Amino acid sequence: MTETRIAVGDRTALWLIGVATTFGMLVGALLLGDARPAAAATYEVECPSTSPDHTDYLAAEFGKAKRGDEVVVKGTCVTRKTLWLKDGVTYRGDGRDGAVLKQADGAKLAALVATDSWALTGEAGKSGTNANVTVRSLTIDANAAGNAGAATIGLVVRAWDSRVYDVAVYRAGGDGIRVTTVTSDGTVLANGSGVDEPHTMVNSIIADSYVEESGRDGISVEDPGNGATDWIVERNWIAGSARHGIGSDNAAGWQIRNNHVYGVGENAIDLRRCYNTGVHDNYIEDFGGNGGAERFGIRCDLQGDVPSTIAGNKINQFRGGGHPMKAGTYFAIGLDGVNYGKGYATVTGNAIVGTAGTVGTETGLAYRGGADLTVVSTGNLVTGCDTALSKDTGVVVTSGI
């Protein structure tokens, strides 16, 4: 590098260079304009109670927001059309009681609220997802009673690096919250083997939310490929789901912790493809209310060659009040096979209380997978079950080190 020096004594030259540089910057700013990004805007969406339908108003106001903006919902807003969420926008209320997005009677929407990449079709749907979307401090009322037969999803999240905080989702005919790599027309995000340019939707959080009376899963993950990994689902309350409390096609990298799941029809936490998955400190009360086939408090089938951990969960079958128990086969915690390679898991420090054989057949811990499965299983409390531990021939069960 060539270095040009100015004599220390020539301070006048240095001063002139400084003045010229400053003047040039000022002239450039005047000629070119201020290149800084515009300040973020806040759009207040206030729905008057005197109007029974706010569809057009909501579409217009939600449509104004751009990356970095905030949409603030006030009042009960009734819509006959899906509300679309954009990249980089925060959608919030002043609190769940004061901000309600409600599906109008008879609208029968596929989804009440959704990130706008869910509407992509064809090739665009294979590569396009949303990013940095935040939904917080509001209520989503899918109004199943006013939309009989419609499997409306309360909130669809097809996005990465996004957040759902302090949100209540009530009365969805379908899933309460669905995380999906699939668009509304069935296009799957391109990912996995044989894909030249893989796309993912990772690193997001669903937390501190209520999901009640869902017609399918409370929180659902739809991922036929391998695109929706490495999320956190924590500190949520999920009750009255017709199928699973939390159900996932792909639990790779997911951390499911400190959730409360009550009175679900099938499995409380149902996880496929567990791969470095953590299921910790959840409280489960009354699962498998539909009876029939095998039902699980926590179910996890394992991918090979990496570990998953199940620890500190509390699982009770009280079956009182509105959660009657039907005849069936119940497993509090089940490792339900290994999909390839060698499966590894720790199952430690869980507390399980069954019904003491009053209805159906109950097993505390079930380990399936033959010689391909190794489990460290220690410090678990199991009581009130017909069988404390069942395991396939060949499964290796140790107390660890």
TrEMBL record:
Xref: SUPFAM superfamilies: Pectin lyase-like
Keywords linked to the UniProt accession: Membrane, Transmembrane, Transmembrane helix
InterPro entries for this protein: PbH1, Pectin_lyas_fold, Pectin_lyase_fold/virulence, RHGA/B-epi-like_pectate_lyase
Residues annotated as domain Rhamnogalacturonase A/B/Epimerase-like pectate lyase: 74-266
Record-annotated membrane-spanning stretches: 12-32
Matches recorded under SMART domains: PbH1
Protein name: Rhamnogalacturonase A/B/Epimerase-like pectate lyase domain-containing protein
Organism expressing this protein natively: Actinorhabdospora filicis
